Structure formats: C-alpha cells, structure tokens
C-alpha cells in the first residue's frame, strides 16, 4: 500500500482569463494562490469542448462534465453529444419510449408536453433538440404540443430569453396548421422554478408543479409579454424571473392532465431529478403535496440517475462511465473522503464517481448545507465550514485521498456581481491558506485545480462590441498546482497539452498505482 496522501481541491469556476474583461480572479486579493504559482509545479488545463467530451470547442465546460473527467481520467462523449447523435441517426425517434409518448397522445387525442431549459447553452439542454422533437411529433401525427419554458440567462447571456422564445415561436408558427397546434404554456426563471438541484430547495419544484402541471399562477397572453412585464416590475435577469402561465380567456392553455405525455428535454441530471421524482413517484413521494397527480406518460431526455433509475423512462442512454478513480482507489485498499456544500455536493460525489449515487465502501461523503440565498448576498458561502471539515478529516488520519469543491467562484460568478465574486475568490484563497498549513503538517500532497472558468470572465463583449455582464462559464483554461514537500515535475508544463482528464492519472502516479489502460496520461 502507498504511503502517500493526496488532497484534491476543485476551485469551482476559477479559470485563467485571457482578456481580463471582468476578471474577478486577478482582481481578488489571493496571496496564497499568487505564492503557489511562483513556488510550485504549475500548469494549465483545458476544461471545455473536446477535452471533456462536448460536441465542439465552442462548448464551454461545466461542472458535470468537468467532475466526470476529473474523477475518471478519461474523456467520454457527454449528454449534449449523445443526444445530437441520437437525433441525427434517428435512434431517438425509433426508440420504444418516444413511440410510446407519441402513440399515447394520438390514441387519446391528448397533449404532448415538453418542459425544459430554453437556450442553446448546451449545459443542461439545447433548443435545437426541442425543435426537432416538436417537428417529428407533428410528422408522426401528434396534434397538440405545449411547451413549458425555463428561462436560462445562466449558461447564455443574462437577458437573452426573448431570442430563444422568438426562435421557438417561429418554429411552432411554421408547423402550426389545421392539424397541429403548438404553443408555449408556462415558464419562469430557472433559479426560481423547477430546476432545483441536490434537494436544496424543494419549494422551487413545488412552484414548477403548480405552474406547469396545474396551470396556477400569474397569467399572460404570451411568453414575451410575460418576460417583458416581469422584467420591468422586478428588474431581474432571466434566471431569476418569476413563474408565469399563458392563458386565453382566463384559462391556462396547457395544464398537464390525465392521458397526456410529458418530456423533460434537459439532458443533464442534477437539476432534472427532482421534477422527475415528482412525476414518477407514487404515494411515497412526500416532498410537497402534488394534489391529484395526473396519469401521464413521463420521460426524461436521459436517465438522470443510473443507480436510482430516475426517471423510469428516458430517450437516450447516458454515458457509461467505467473505471473511475474511486473504484481504482477502492481496489487498491485506499480510503477516500469527499466534502462540499449542498450546491456542489453531488458534483464531488455523484458526478465525480461517473454519475454513480451509491458510494464505494472505502468512501466517506460529507454535505455541508448551503445557504438558501442568492450567493451575491453571501459570497463566502460555506468556504470556512468546508475548510474546517477538511482540517478535521486530515487530522483524523483516516484518509489516503481527500477531495473537495469550493463553489464560490462559480456560484457567485453566476450572479453576475463582480464585487461579490471577488469576495468569493478571496474566500477560497483564505480556505486554501488554512488548509495548506495543516496538510503540510500531516504530509499530504495538495493538488489544486478547477472544473471550468466563470469568475475569470464576469463581462463580455457582444456582437455589436457592447460590454455586458456575463453570468455563464468561460471557455478559459484552468490552473493546476502541485503543493508538496516531495519533488514533482510536470512534464511539458509550458505546453497546452493537458486537460482535466490528466488529473486523475497524476493522482495515481503519486500513489504509485498503475492507471487503467483506458486512462489519459499522468502529467508527472
Ligand atoms: O446548473 C448551473 O448552475 C449552470 O447551468 C452550470 O453550472 P455548473 O456546471 O457549474 O453546475
Ligand atoms: Mn463547476
Ligand atoms: Mn456553474
């Protein structure tokens, strides 16, 4: 067994800016990160596009694909790519689930509903998938489609919702005729309604159920009017806009009722699981009162949790991630510890272990409850508590490998507040300062990296050359530091040849464990 001990810190959303446009990482006072960059083996990693299994290098990285790659040392084709392929090859439309959904509405003359994130962010969903599914449904004889749109502004520009609404409405207008009727039925900002994750706030899902299923809520004639009115009244950016219902003559145009079919067209799991539980769950579901639950056929775009089999029905198989680092460490007899706060807990456990919700026997997982606020109001988040917990784990001397995620750069970065994000980055640096002292004392090698950028690019230039607030991740590279009393040298540190999938092989190299043949190369 190895006598080495390793800690891996993921500084979520802390990348390296090229433009320095709204670069909260450089603006922040980060004495520890600055010192490490001068003193330690250091390189940068590619964290987007092909390096993490996304369709193209125009696709920014995200936590799901980033933590998958960090945790498995391999590059798997991810949801965005798998759905594209399934639609292009026709496999999705030949699937049993798709045909069941469509035949159900044909035989019952009922409605096919689509619920999901309306953008081309390609993190949770892509509007192009939605448009293709609507067109195919018409071709196959569905007569009525209703779409429940979650407004993004978090993976795409902050106030871009009208672009996607117009795009969808144009597509539906072209399809609508005497035999086919498609409309937007309800919606709301993704951080207010439906897309909660890791059970941080079930009230969001309850509101989604009331809005999409029951058609309860403030009524508008159309989605553009809803966005415009709600924006004027609240000043909120898209992700925070309140829920709305589209109605005609006082009646919602698309309640979900007995006999309907429902597709959640998001492919990423974290924010799709709770709504799926509400649709699939029987009487044992107690997270909120669903009232009389309509008898529908429900399917997700992907299987969102392969262990718990959520949802029951889905359209595309998720990537089957094998030979994860946790599995390899378990086989080698090493003990692992994982910690983060609620907002990133599943990232450092479920995504880390290749979308596996059961832990290995050799692992201990710890969740620190997140605040239920917009994180510009508490930019330090739980960085101090996570650090306290890490120090306790180190001092327990129980663990060979400790991993953690500090969410600040990402979660505060998504709010678009530069001032708050600077505080978020500084909180991470302070956490590292405290952590490194104890890690050194107990003989741990500490690897520090990030899963993608965000805080490094808080502003962006639009096509007209105007500067706007950026709430989305960046496409920038991320840092990789080795802090150790042992001497390690990163091969070709100045090149740009490494990506997130090179981290796990590096960890195994430190432990002196042979990596599975399918893994990428170690950097040392
Ligand atoms: O879900 C979110 O908050 C964003 O779409 C992506 O952020 P994450 O990939 O960092 O979770
Ligand atoms: Mn992330
Ligand atoms: Mn993020």
The structural class is alpha/beta
Tally of distinct domains? 2
Rounded Rg: 23 Å
Q: So how many helices?
A: 17
Which topology of the largest domain does CATH recognise? Answer: Alkaline Phosphatase, subunit A
Keywords: Glycolysis, Isomerase, Manganese, Metal-binding
Active site: 63
Binding site for Mn(2+) 1: 410, 414, 473
Family: Belongs to the BPG-independent phosphoglycerate mutase family.
Describe it.
The protein has two domains: 5-78 and 320-511, Alkaline Phosphatase, subunit A; 80-316, BPG-independent phosphoglycerate mutase, domain B (2,3-Bisphosphoglycerate-independent phosphoglycerate mutase, substrate-binding domain, 3-Layer(aba) Sandwich). By secondary structure, it is of the alpha/beta class. 35% of the residues lie in helices and 18% in strands. It has helices at residues 24-27, 31-39, 63-72, 79-89, 91-94, 96-108, 127-139, 161-175, 202-213, 223-234, 273-280, 325-331, 342-351, 383-396, 408-413, 418-441, 503-511; strands at residues 5-11, 42-45, 112-118, 144-151, 181-189, 219-220, 244-248, 251-252, 261-264, 297-302, 314-316, 336-341, 363-368, 401-406, 444-449, 459-461, 467-469, 478-483. The longest helix is centred in the last third of the chain and has 24 residues, at 418-441. Strands 3, 4, 5, 6, 7, 8, 9, 10 and 11 form a nine-stranded mixed beta sheet that branches. It is globular. It has 17 helices and 18 strands. The structure holds 3-phosphoglyceric acid and manganese (II) ion (MN) (2 copies). The site of one manganese (II) ion has 7 residues, from α3. 3-phosphoglyceric acid (3PG) is lined by residues 62-64, 123-124, 154-155, 271, 410, 414.
